[in-house]
Amino acid sequence: MIMKSVKRNKRMPHIDKMFFWEFDIEAMDFDAAYKTVIARIIERGGQEEINELVRFYGYEKVIKALRDEIYFLPDYGIESALAFFPELKKEEMYCYINRKDKPYHWI
């Protein structure tokens, strides 16, 4: 029997696995997936998770991702980002600029 080894990620934020239910969190590369992680926590997390994002990625990287790199957040996600980071302006956020005139539908 051949055993396949799974590479374990040594660098992980201290965030509950429930936020990433559809991923193999032990194998997830949190450095490469930073936009996904930040977007997910902004949408579904609270202050404790936001603090962990800032600790893990750094304040500037979180702000840059929210402002320039995350392509989509629902309206409530944008409002959460603005509440957690008051220096952000939604008119400067790519996810807002990208869809402000485009309605979206949930399936």
Number of helices: 5
Measured between the Cα atoms of the first and last residue, the distance is 43 Å
Write the element-wise H/E pattern from the N-terminal end onward: HHHHH
Label the structural class: mainly alpha
SSE layout and pairing:
Elements: H1 34-44, H2 47-57, H3 59-69, H4 75-84, H5 94-97
Helix pairs in contact: 1-2, 1-3, 1-4, 2-3
Q: Overview of this structure, please?
A:
The protein is mostly helical and 107 residues long. 44% of the residues lie in helices and 0% in strands. It has helices at 34-44, 47-57, 59-69, 75-84, 94-97. The radius of gyration is 15 Å and the shape is globular.
In short:
By secondary structure, this protein is mainly α. The protein has five helices and no strands.
